[in-house]
Amino acid sequence: MTQKDAMEGQDPLYIDPDLFDSGAGREHSPTQMRAIAEELKSYLGGMTGPGSAEGYTNGSVNGILDHCQLSEAQIGTWHDASAFSQTVGANSGGKKFAQVYKEFVDAYKDVIAAVEASAANHSAGDKANEGKG
User: Fold this and answer.
1) Which helix (H) or strand (E) holds 45?
2) In the predicted model, what is the mean pLDDT of residues 117-129?
3) Predicted TM-score (pTM) of this structure
């Protein structure tokens, strides 16, 4: 939800009154949860793979480390360029960006693990409570 939506649209704290009803709209499916986890996993290769493939960079952490590490030699050696290279160069901006992106990838993996754990929990609950599975 954007800030505009929050200000002009539906109440951002709106709670569906049927949220906890057991009607047809409320269902959990360990199979669908696992499918979601598998779909999320399918995107991991682009985030964790090699830095480039077939001559193109791909947006992975390795791609950032391979292609976003500018040095003073590429930016320039005069005073302002040298100062700028210290903020975006190999030991600063590019490396920090890669670090933050890696932390995002780690959190993304944690989300996948949480979805898989939730699916396992629901599946075990179904077996214990309803004899399903």
Assistant:
1) helix 44-48
2) 88
3) 0.63
Question: Does residue 87 sit in helix, strand or coil?
Answer: helix
Q: Which residue type does 18 have?
A: D
Buried b / exposed e over 55-70, threshold 16 CB at 10 Å, is: eeebebbbbbbeebbb
Task: Out of 27-36, 43-52, 106-115, 119-128, pick the least confident.
Answer: 43-52
CA 39 to chain centre: 12
Distance separating alpha carbons of residues 113 and 7, to the nearest angstrom: 34
The number of CA neighbours under 13 Å toward the Cβ of 9 is 10
Token match 């391979």: residue?
66
| Beta bridge partners of residue 9, listed in sequence order | none
- 123's tokens: 């599946």
Cβ count near 112 (within 10 Å): 17
